Amino acid sequence: MPDARRWRQATRSWARGASHPGESAHQATPAPDAALRDAAESLVSAALQALTLDDASAWTLYADRLSAFHGDPRTVDLTLLRRLRSSVRTAWERGWLPADLARHTARELSARHRSLLVDSIADELRSYGAATVDDRWRAQLEALGADIWWDSDDERLTAWRARKAVSMSASVKAALELLRLLAVLPRLAMIGPLPGTTARSDTSARRAPATAPDQRMLGKVRALLAKAESTEFPEEAEALSARAQELMTKHSIDHALLSVSQEDPSGPDGCRIPVDAPYESPKAVLLTVVAEANRCRAVWHRDLGLSTVLGFPADLAATEMLFTSLLVQATSAMVRAGSQQDMLGRSRTRSFRHAFLNAYAARIGERLQAASTRATQEAATNQDLLPVLSARDEAVDQAVNDLFPALTRGRARRVSNYEGWIAGRAAADLAALQSNDEIPSATP
To answer: What's the pTM?
Structure first.
Protein backbone atom coordinates (compact mmCIF):
# COMPACT_ATOMS: atom_id res chain seq x y z
CA MET A 1 0.00 0.00 0.00
CA PRO A 2 1.27 3.55 -0.70
CA ASP A 3 0.62 4.61 2.91
CA ALA A 4 2.66 1.72 4.21
CA ARG A 5 5.57 2.67 1.93
CA ARG A 6 5.43 6.27 3.18
CA TRP A 7 5.52 5.00 6.77
CA ARG A 8 8.58 2.83 6.08
CA GLN A 9 10.32 5.69 4.25
CA ALA A 10 9.58 8.12 7.08
CA THR A 11 10.92 5.82 9.77
CA ARG A 12 14.05 5.04 7.70
CA SER A 13 14.67 8.76 7.15
CA TRP A 14 14.34 9.44 10.87
CA ALA A 15 16.75 6.58 11.63
CA ARG A 16 19.33 7.92 9.18
CA GLY A 17 19.04 11.41 10.64
CA ALA A 18 19.51 10.11 14.18
CA SER A 19 22.56 8.03 13.32
CA HIS A 20 24.41 10.88 11.58
CA PRO A 21 24.05 13.95 13.80
CA GLY A 22 26.98 15.66 12.10
CA GLU A 23 25.35 15.89 8.67
CA SER A 24 25.00 19.41 7.32
CA ALA A 25 21.86 21.33 8.20
CA HIS A 26 20.85 22.00 4.59
CA GLN A 27 20.11 18.34 3.88
CA ALA A 28 16.43 17.32 3.53
CA THR A 29 16.41 14.91 6.47
CA PRO A 30 13.37 15.83 8.65
CA ALA A 31 13.66 16.47 12.35
CA PRO A 32 12.73 13.51 14.55
CA ASP A 33 9.41 15.01 15.65
CA ALA A 34 8.38 15.79 12.09
CA ALA A 35 9.40 12.32 10.91
CA LEU A 36 7.41 10.67 13.69
CA ARG A 37 4.37 12.78 12.93
CA ASP A 38 4.60 11.83 9.26
CA ALA A 39 4.94 8.18 10.19
CA ALA A 40 1.91 8.33 12.46
CA GLU A 41 -0.15 10.14 9.83
CA SER A 42 0.75 7.50 7.24
CA LEU A 43 -0.16 4.67 9.59
CA VAL A 44 -3.51 6.28 10.42
CA SER A 45 -4.26 6.71 6.70
CA ALA A 46 -3.32 3.10 6.03
CA ALA A 47 -5.50 1.84 8.89
CA LEU A 48 -8.49 3.84 7.64
CA GLN A 49 -7.97 2.53 4.14
CA ALA A 50 -7.93 -1.02 5.51
CA LEU A 51 -11.22 -0.34 7.30
CA THR A 52 -12.73 1.01 4.10
CA LEU A 53 -11.64 -2.06 2.15
CA ASP A 54 -12.73 -4.37 4.99
CA ASP A 55 -9.20 -5.82 5.00
CA ALA A 56 -9.06 -7.42 8.46
CA SER A 57 -5.41 -8.46 8.35
CA ALA A 58 -4.18 -5.03 7.24
CA TRP A 59 -6.44 -3.33 9.78
CA THR A 60 -4.98 -5.43 12.60
CA LEU A 61 -1.43 -4.79 11.40
CA TYR A 62 -1.70 -1.00 11.26
CA ALA A 63 -3.75 -0.69 14.43
CA ASP A 64 -1.15 -2.76 16.28
CA ARG A 65 1.69 -0.63 14.90
CA LEU A 66 -0.03 2.53 16.06
CA SER A 67 -0.67 1.02 19.49
CA ALA A 68 3.01 0.08 19.86
CA PHE A 69 4.37 3.20 18.14
CA HIS A 70 8.04 3.90 18.79
CA GLY A 71 9.11 7.21 20.26
CA ASP A 72 6.73 9.45 22.16
CA PRO A 73 3.31 7.71 22.32
CA ARG A 74 1.64 11.13 22.39
CA THR A 75 2.53 11.42 18.71
CA VAL A 76 -0.20 8.93 17.85
CA ASP A 77 -2.65 10.47 20.31
CA LEU A 78 -2.17 13.97 18.93
CA THR A 79 -2.45 12.72 15.35
CA LEU A 80 -5.77 11.04 16.12
CA LEU A 81 -7.07 14.07 18.03
CA ARG A 82 -6.21 16.45 15.20
CA ARG A 83 -8.07 14.25 12.76
CA LEU A 84 -11.07 13.89 15.04
CA ARG A 85 -11.39 17.63 15.47
CA SER A 86 -11.18 18.21 11.72
CA SER A 87 -13.71 15.43 11.06
CA VAL A 88 -16.18 16.90 13.56
CA ARG A 89 -15.98 20.26 11.83
CA THR A 90 -16.58 18.56 8.48
CA ALA A 91 -19.66 16.87 9.96
CA TRP A 92 -21.06 20.31 10.89
CA GLU A 93 -20.51 21.44 7.31
CA ARG A 94 -22.47 18.40 6.12
CA GLY A 95 -25.48 19.50 8.14
CA TRP A 96 -25.08 17.35 11.27
CA LEU A 97 -25.96 18.80 14.67
CA PRO A 98 -24.20 17.65 17.88
CA ALA A 99 -27.16 15.56 19.12
CA ASP A 100 -27.60 13.93 15.70
CA LEU A 101 -23.94 13.00 15.55
CA ALA A 102 -23.80 11.58 19.09
CA ARG A 103 -26.92 9.49 18.55
CA HIS A 104 -25.69 8.19 15.18
CA THR A 105 -22.33 7.22 16.67
CA ALA A 106 -23.94 5.25 19.51
CA ARG A 107 -26.34 3.64 17.02
CA GLU A 108 -23.64 2.56 14.57
CA LEU A 109 -20.73 1.87 16.95
CA SER A 110 -20.94 1.95 20.76
CA ALA A 111 -21.22 4.08 23.90
CA ARG A 112 -17.41 4.14 24.09
CA HIS A 113 -17.18 5.70 20.64
CA ARG A 114 -19.91 8.17 21.59
CA SER A 115 -17.91 9.26 24.63
CA LEU A 116 -14.87 9.89 22.46
CA LEU A 117 -17.00 11.84 20.00
CA VAL A 118 -18.61 14.04 22.68
CA ASP A 119 -15.15 15.01 23.93
CA SER A 120 -14.14 15.86 20.35
CA ILE A 121 -17.28 17.99 19.98
CA ALA A 122 -16.40 19.91 23.15
CA ASP A 123 -12.82 20.33 21.93
CA GLU A 124 -13.92 21.70 18.56
CA LEU A 125 -16.64 24.05 19.79
CA ARG A 126 -14.63 25.73 22.55
CA SER A 127 -12.75 27.66 19.86
CA TYR A 128 -15.89 29.68 18.98
CA GLY A 129 -17.16 32.68 20.88
CA ALA A 130 -20.43 32.12 22.73
CA ALA A 131 -22.12 34.86 20.70
CA THR A 132 -21.36 32.99 17.46
CA VAL A 133 -22.92 29.68 18.54
CA ASP A 134 -26.64 29.15 17.93
CA ASP A 135 -28.87 28.59 20.95
CA ARG A 136 -29.81 25.07 19.86
CA TRP A 137 -26.12 24.10 19.71
CA ARG A 138 -25.55 25.32 23.24
CA ALA A 139 -28.62 23.44 24.46
CA GLN A 140 -27.47 20.24 22.77
CA LEU A 141 -23.96 20.55 24.18
CA GLU A 142 -25.40 20.89 27.66
CA ALA A 143 -27.66 17.88 27.14
CA LEU A 144 -24.71 15.82 25.89
CA GLY A 145 -22.48 16.87 28.77
CA ALA A 146 -19.90 18.11 26.26
CA ASP A 147 -17.40 19.97 28.42
CA ILE A 148 -13.65 20.22 28.83
CA TRP A 149 -13.00 17.89 31.76
CA TRP A 150 -9.36 17.00 30.98
CA ASP A 151 -6.43 19.04 32.37
CA SER A 152 -4.07 18.99 29.39
CA ASP A 153 -4.89 18.75 25.69
CA ASP A 154 -1.70 16.79 25.04
CA GLU A 155 -2.78 14.22 27.63
CA ARG A 156 -6.47 14.10 26.67
CA LEU A 157 -6.47 10.54 25.31
CA THR A 158 -4.34 9.37 28.21
CA ALA A 159 -6.92 10.82 30.60
CA TRP A 160 -9.76 9.31 28.55
CA ARG A 161 -8.16 5.86 28.69
CA ALA A 162 -7.88 6.13 32.48
CA ARG A 163 -11.45 7.36 32.79
CA LYS A 164 -12.86 4.54 30.65
CA ALA A 165 -10.36 1.91 31.86
CA VAL A 166 -9.31 0.97 28.33
CA SER A 167 -5.92 0.08 26.88
CA MET A 168 -3.85 2.01 24.34
CA SER A 169 -4.85 -0.53 21.70
CA ALA A 170 -8.58 -0.17 22.46
CA SER A 171 -8.39 3.63 22.37
CA VAL A 172 -6.54 3.65 19.06
CA LYS A 173 -9.07 1.30 17.48
CA ALA A 174 -12.00 3.30 18.84
CA ALA A 175 -10.58 6.54 17.44
CA LEU A 176 -9.92 4.97 14.05
CA GLU A 177 -13.40 3.45 13.88
CA LEU A 178 -14.91 6.80 14.80
CA LEU A 179 -12.86 8.55 12.13
CA ARG A 180 -14.09 6.05 9.57
CA LEU A 181 -17.72 6.64 10.56
CA LEU A 182 -17.31 10.42 10.34
CA ALA A 183 -15.69 10.10 6.92
CA VAL A 184 -18.73 8.44 5.36
CA LEU A 185 -21.50 10.59 6.86
CA PRO A 186 -24.12 11.55 4.28
CA ARG A 187 -24.99 15.19 3.75
CA LEU A 188 -28.05 16.46 5.62
CA ALA A 189 -30.12 19.58 5.13
CA MET A 190 -28.52 22.54 6.90
CA ILE A 191 -30.78 23.80 9.69
CA GLY A 192 -29.46 26.80 11.55
CA PRO A 193 -26.11 28.59 11.26
CA LEU A 194 -22.78 26.86 11.70
CA PRO A 195 -20.85 27.76 14.85
CA GLY A 196 -18.57 30.69 14.29
CA THR A 197 -20.43 31.99 11.26
CA THR A 198 -23.33 34.04 12.64
CA ALA A 199 -23.50 36.24 15.71
CA ARG A 200 -26.87 37.10 17.18
CA SER A 201 -27.60 40.76 16.59
CA ASP A 202 -29.32 43.02 19.10
CA THR A 203 -32.36 43.03 16.84
CA SER A 204 -32.62 39.23 16.71
CA ALA A 205 -32.10 39.05 20.47
CA ARG A 206 -34.99 41.44 21.04
CA ARG A 207 -37.20 39.40 18.74
CA ALA A 208 -36.35 36.08 20.35
CA PRO A 209 -39.18 36.19 22.92
CA ALA A 210 -41.72 36.73 20.15
CA THR A 211 -40.66 33.60 18.25
CA ALA A 212 -39.87 31.26 21.15
CA PRO A 213 -42.60 28.99 22.54
CA ASP A 214 -44.48 30.32 25.55
CA GLN A 215 -43.40 28.11 28.43
CA ARG A 216 -46.49 29.01 30.47
CA MET A 217 -48.74 27.81 27.67
CA LEU A 218 -46.71 24.63 27.31
CA GLY A 219 -47.08 24.13 31.05
CA LYS A 220 -50.87 24.29 30.73
CA VAL A 221 -50.76 21.78 27.88
CA ARG A 222 -48.57 19.41 29.88
CA ALA A 223 -50.95 19.63 32.83
CA LEU A 224 -53.95 18.83 30.62
CA LEU A 225 -52.24 15.88 29.01
CA ALA A 226 -50.83 14.50 32.25
CA LYS A 227 -54.40 14.46 33.56
CA ALA A 228 -55.57 12.77 30.37
CA GLU A 229 -52.90 10.11 30.77
CA SER A 230 -53.94 9.33 34.31
CA THR A 231 -57.72 9.11 33.88
CA GLU A 232 -59.44 5.75 33.53
CA PHE A 233 -62.35 7.23 31.59
CA PRO A 234 -61.92 7.23 27.79
CA GLU A 235 -64.32 10.11 27.23
CA GLU A 236 -62.44 12.33 29.66
CA ALA A 237 -59.07 11.43 28.11
CA GLU A 238 -60.44 12.25 24.65
CA ALA A 239 -61.79 15.63 25.78
CA LEU A 240 -58.61 16.62 27.61
CA SER A 241 -56.38 15.55 24.70
CA ALA A 242 -58.46 17.48 22.19
CA ARG A 243 -58.38 20.55 24.44
CA ALA A 244 -54.58 20.34 24.59
CA GLN A 245 -54.31 20.29 20.79
CA GLU A 246 -56.69 23.23 20.53
CA LEU A 247 -54.52 25.20 22.96
CA MET A 248 -51.46 24.46 20.87
CA THR A 249 -53.19 25.49 17.67
CA LYS A 250 -54.41 28.74 19.21
CA HIS A 251 -50.92 29.40 20.54
CA SER A 252 -49.54 28.89 17.04
CA ILE A 253 -52.12 31.33 15.66
CA ASP A 254 -51.28 33.91 18.33
CA HIS A 255 -47.61 33.61 17.46
CA ALA A 256 -48.36 34.13 13.80
CA LEU A 257 -50.36 37.30 14.44
CA LEU A 258 -47.81 38.60 16.96
CA SER A 259 -44.99 38.16 14.46
CA VAL A 260 -46.90 40.17 11.87
CA SER A 261 -47.75 42.95 14.31
CA GLN A 262 -44.08 43.23 15.29
CA GLU A 263 -42.87 42.96 11.69
CA ASP A 264 -40.85 39.91 12.67
CA PRO A 265 -39.15 38.55 9.52
CA SER A 266 -38.21 35.19 11.05
CA GLY A 267 -39.01 32.26 8.82
CA PRO A 268 -39.34 28.51 9.25
CA ASP A 269 -36.84 26.70 11.42
CA GLY A 270 -36.01 23.02 11.76
CA CYS A 271 -35.22 20.26 14.21
CA ARG A 272 -34.40 16.56 14.03
CA ILE A 273 -36.36 13.90 15.86
CA PRO A 274 -35.24 10.26 16.27
CA VAL A 275 -37.37 7.54 14.67
CA ASP A 276 -35.96 4.30 16.02
CA ALA A 277 -36.40 0.67 15.05
CA PRO A 278 -38.32 -1.53 15.39
CA TYR A 279 -41.47 -0.57 13.46
CA GLU A 280 -39.84 2.63 12.29
CA SER A 281 -42.15 3.03 9.28
CA PRO A 282 -45.41 3.49 11.25
CA LYS A 283 -43.50 5.60 13.79
CA ALA A 284 -42.45 7.90 10.96
CA VAL A 285 -46.09 8.07 9.86
CA LEU A 286 -47.10 9.05 13.39
CA LEU A 287 -44.54 11.87 13.38
CA THR A 288 -45.81 13.01 9.99
CA VAL A 289 -49.43 13.32 11.11
CA VAL A 290 -48.44 15.07 14.35
CA ALA A 291 -46.27 17.51 12.37
CA GLU A 292 -48.99 18.26 9.82
CA ALA A 293 -51.57 18.89 12.53
CA ASN A 294 -49.19 21.48 13.94
CA ARG A 295 -48.46 23.17 10.58
CA CYS A 296 -45.05 21.52 10.18
CA ARG A 297 -43.60 19.07 7.65
CA ALA A 298 -41.58 15.95 8.49
CA VAL A 299 -39.03 14.34 6.17
CA TRP A 300 -37.93 10.84 7.16
CA HIS A 301 -34.33 9.70 6.66
CA ARG A 302 -34.96 5.97 6.75
CA ASP A 303 -31.33 4.82 6.80
CA LEU A 304 -30.36 7.22 9.59
CA GLY A 305 -33.30 6.55 11.89
CA LEU A 306 -34.40 10.18 12.17
CA SER A 307 -36.64 12.81 10.61
CA THR A 308 -36.05 16.46 9.81
CA VAL A 309 -39.06 18.54 10.84
CA LEU A 310 -39.54 22.04 9.41
CA GLY A 311 -41.89 24.68 10.75
CA PHE A 312 -42.10 27.78 12.92
CA PRO A 313 -40.55 27.55 16.43
CA ALA A 314 -43.73 27.23 18.50
CA ASP A 315 -45.10 24.61 16.11
CA LEU A 316 -41.87 22.62 16.22
CA ALA A 317 -41.98 22.59 20.02
CA ALA A 318 -45.57 21.31 19.96
CA THR A 319 -44.71 18.64 17.39
CA GLU A 320 -41.75 17.26 19.32
CA MET A 321 -43.65 17.28 22.60
CA LEU A 322 -46.70 15.51 21.21
CA PHE A 323 -44.81 12.92 19.19
CA THR A 324 -42.64 11.92 22.15
CA SER A 325 -45.66 11.47 24.39
CA LEU A 326 -47.72 9.59 21.83
CA LEU A 327 -44.89 7.23 21.02
CA VAL A 328 -44.38 6.36 24.70
CA GLN A 329 -48.09 5.72 25.12
CA ALA A 330 -48.34 3.64 21.93
CA THR A 331 -45.39 1.50 22.97
CA SER A 332 -46.81 0.96 26.45
CA ALA A 333 -50.24 -0.02 25.09
CA MET A 334 -48.63 -2.31 22.52
CA VAL A 335 -46.57 -4.10 25.14
CA ARG A 336 -49.59 -4.51 27.41
CA ALA A 337 -51.33 -6.33 24.56
CA GLY A 338 -48.67 -9.03 24.91
CA SER A 339 -47.46 -11.60 22.39
CA GLN A 340 -49.85 -12.65 19.64
CA GLN A 341 -50.28 -16.07 18.02
CA ASP A 342 -52.45 -17.48 15.27
CA MET A 343 -54.66 -20.58 15.61
CA LEU A 344 -51.69 -22.84 14.90
CA GLY A 345 -49.57 -21.28 17.63
CA ARG A 346 -47.33 -19.34 15.25
CA SER A 347 -46.17 -15.92 16.36
CA ARG A 348 -48.01 -12.95 14.89
CA THR A 349 -46.57 -10.42 17.29
CA ARG A 350 -44.64 -8.46 14.66
CA SER A 351 -47.53 -8.13 12.23
CA PHE A 352 -49.87 -7.25 15.12
CA ARG A 353 -47.58 -4.46 16.34
CA HIS A 354 -46.98 -3.13 12.85
CA ALA A 355 -50.74 -2.94 12.24
CA PHE A 356 -51.27 -1.52 15.72
CA LEU A 357 -48.90 1.39 15.15
CA ASN A 358 -50.23 2.12 11.67
CA ALA A 359 -53.80 2.26 12.96
CA TYR A 360 -52.69 4.31 15.95
CA ALA A 361 -51.00 6.87 13.67
CA ALA A 362 -54.05 7.09 11.40
CA ARG A 363 -56.47 7.65 14.27
CA ILE A 364 -54.18 10.15 16.01
CA GLY A 365 -54.01 12.08 12.75
CA GLU A 366 -57.80 12.27 12.62
CA ARG A 367 -58.04 13.47 16.23
CA LEU A 368 -55.36 16.10 15.95
CA GLN A 369 -56.61 17.43 12.65
CA ALA A 370 -60.15 17.77 14.03
CA ALA A 371 -58.89 19.66 17.06
CA SER A 372 -56.72 21.94 14.94
CA THR A 373 -59.59 22.65 12.55
CA ARG A 374 -61.89 23.62 15.40
CA ALA A 375 -59.35 26.03 16.85
CA THR A 376 -58.68 27.61 13.45
CA GLN A 377 -62.36 28.05 12.73
CA GLU A 378 -62.95 29.73 16.08
CA ALA A 379 -60.17 32.22 15.35
CA ALA A 380 -61.22 32.81 11.72
CA THR A 381 -63.29 35.87 12.67
CA ASN A 382 -60.01 37.79 12.67
CA GLN A 383 -59.66 39.07 9.10
CA ASP A 384 -55.86 39.07 9.34
CA LEU A 385 -55.59 35.41 10.31
CA LEU A 386 -56.15 33.39 7.17
CA PRO A 387 -53.62 35.27 4.99
CA VAL A 388 -51.03 34.92 7.75
CA LEU A 389 -51.59 31.17 8.15
CA SER A 390 -51.59 30.71 4.39
CA ALA A 391 -48.31 32.61 4.10
CA ARG A 392 -46.79 30.48 6.86
CA ASP A 393 -47.88 27.25 5.18
CA GLU A 394 -46.34 28.46 1.91
CA ALA A 395 -43.12 29.42 3.71
CA VAL A 396 -42.82 25.96 5.27
CA ASP A 397 -43.57 24.24 1.96
CA GLN A 398 -40.95 26.41 0.25
CA ALA A 399 -38.39 25.54 2.92
CA VAL A 400 -39.06 21.83 2.29
CA ASN A 401 -38.65 22.32 -1.46
CA ASP A 402 -35.43 24.29 -1.00
CA LEU A 403 -33.82 21.82 1.38
CA PHE A 404 -35.16 18.63 -0.23
CA PRO A 405 -35.48 19.27 -3.98
CA ALA A 406 -35.47 15.54 -4.79
CA LEU A 407 -37.95 14.53 -2.10
CA THR A 408 -40.12 11.51 -2.91
CA ARG A 409 -43.14 10.11 -1.12
CA GLY A 410 -42.88 6.49 -0.01
CA ARG A 411 -45.71 3.99 -0.13
CA ALA A 412 -47.05 2.64 3.13
CA ARG A 413 -46.65 -1.09 3.73
CA ARG A 414 -49.84 -3.15 3.58
CA VAL A 415 -51.38 -3.94 6.95
CA SER A 416 -52.31 -7.61 7.29
CA ASN A 417 -53.34 -7.97 10.93
CA TYR A 418 -56.93 -6.92 11.57
CA GLU A 419 -56.74 -7.40 15.33
CA GLY A 420 -53.69 -5.16 15.53
CA TRP A 421 -55.45 -2.47 13.49
CA ILE A 422 -58.51 -2.46 15.75
CA ALA A 423 -56.36 -2.44 18.89
CA GLY A 424 -54.25 0.43 17.55
CA ARG A 425 -57.27 2.63 16.84
CA ALA A 426 -58.66 1.89 20.27
CA ALA A 427 -55.38 2.85 21.91
CA ALA A 428 -55.29 6.09 19.91
CA ASP A 429 -58.73 7.02 21.23
CA LEU A 430 -57.40 6.68 24.78
CA ALA A 431 -54.08 8.45 24.15
CA ALA A 432 -53.02 11.64 25.87
CA LEU A 433 -50.85 13.98 23.87
CA GLN A 434 -47.88 14.69 26.10
CA SER A 435 -45.40 12.74 28.18
CA ASN A 436 -44.17 13.61 31.61
CA ASP A 437 -41.32 12.45 33.76
CA GLU A 438 -43.45 9.87 35.55
CA ILE A 439 -44.26 7.79 32.46
CA PRO A 440 -42.15 4.61 32.45
CA SER A 441 -40.49 3.63 29.21
CA ALA A 442 -41.21 0.31 27.58
CA THR A 443 -39.45 -1.58 24.82
CA PRO A 444 -41.42 -3.74 22.40
So the answer is: 0.73
User: Smallest Cα–Cα separation from 65: which of 86, 32, 36?
Assistant: 36
Q: Please provide residue 302's backbone torsions phi and psi, each rounded to the nearest 5 degrees.
A: -55, -45
Instruction: Return contacts of 407-412, CB within 8 angstroms, 24+ apart.
Output: 407/299, 410/300, 410/302, 412/281, 412/285, 412/358
Residues, the chain = 444
Residue 26 has pLDDT above 60, yes or no: no
pLDDT at 432 over 60: no
Angle value at C-alpha 389, between 359 and 324, nearest 5 degrees: 35
Asked whether residue 331 carries a pLDDT value surpassing 50, the answer given is yes
Cis upstream peptide for 278 (omega within 30°): yes
For 225-266, the pLDDT digits (tens) are 667 556 666 566 556 666 766 676 666 666 554 554 444 456
CA-to-CA distance for 85 and 127, rounded, in angstroms? 11
Among 81, 91, 174, smallest CA distance to 119 is for: 81
Q: Under a CB-based contact definition with an 8 Å cutoff, are residues 338 and 316 in contact?
A: no
d(CA 233, CA 39): 71
What digits encode the pLDDT tens for the residues 81-122? 999 999 999 999 999 999 999 999 999 999 999 999 999 999
